Amino acid sequence: MLKRIVSGIMLILLFVSMLTLAFNIKPVKATTITVPDNYPTIQEAINHADDRDTVFVKAATYNENVILNVSISLIGEARETTIIDVRGIGNPLEITANKTIVSGFTFSYGGTGIAMTNSHNNIIKNNILRKNSRGIGGPFYTNTILENNTVMENDYGIDFGHLSGPSSKNNTAKNNEIYSNTNAGIYVSASEGNNSIVGNRIHDNAFGIVLDHTQQNGVSGNLITDNTYGIYMRNAIQDTIEQNLLQNNVVGIHLEGSNGNNIFHNNFAGNTVQVEGASYNTWDDDYPSGGNYWSDYSGQDLCNSPDQNITGSDGIGDSIYRIDADNIDRYPLMHEYPIPEFPSITTLVIAMTITATAVIIGKRKFRLRQKT
Fold it and tell me: What is the residue extent of each domain of the chain?
């Protein structure tokens, strides 16, 4: 059996070699270009890079406007000390290519720290975006992952599109810390939907998350605390808000012309106003799944049925939580709903690799047992 496998591999290699000779095909090898060792500026390095190459930037402060127009990995040595600072002129980084990876930088004092223009399928991770008009944004980008970034002291933190431009959709903002932005931590506008905002820590902003003229987005597993508005929804429809902690905000959720949203399994704790505004939404996931936890709910839990006629506790309040005349949580939770922790992409890859390795080893051991 082993001889047959080896013979098959050798035949495949021989066939590939013959094709290479016949068509003069030269295999493409990705290379690493180092700044400033190979080129003195980041832009010069990018200009000499090909798809799949890596531009590695050593720790220093670079005062240049960088345009990333090739599908490469742009990697800084350390995000605290590898800094692109444009001193208030233009954008530190503009991405016009697809399938790029940007990691390990501080982008500061620009219009938009990382601006994406008709750019798709990017991974932006482990960066610091600070003191820009917008931390991350652009008129149109899709299928992009924004992960493990620190977004602070900008006017807007992460911007998923504008009312006046095309929609940015199918993006994910995950495991970021977003704070001290003077307007919105995360701003989603005019989007066709399917943007995911998951597992972020969003605090001390004027608006934690803004959903403005948007639909079918998911907001889950976020810690949204100490903002003026936790979540601000204006003409937002069919969005799902679940498993978030909304705590110590002036207003937990503001609703304005925002109907048909599903808002349940959240913890509303210690907000000055839990919910304000007039809209029509769903506030629970039926019985026994339940609704939201409200720190100012004064009801009791003495019965274990929504009909309130069977004695026993079921973790759901016996009376409704009234938000306003048109909105009620029929099954308010007596205890805080557990907020999930979302693993990073790196953690998922490691876990999948370990699992796959374990499966392979297990199969080999099983075959050995069968042979013996």
Answer: 155-341
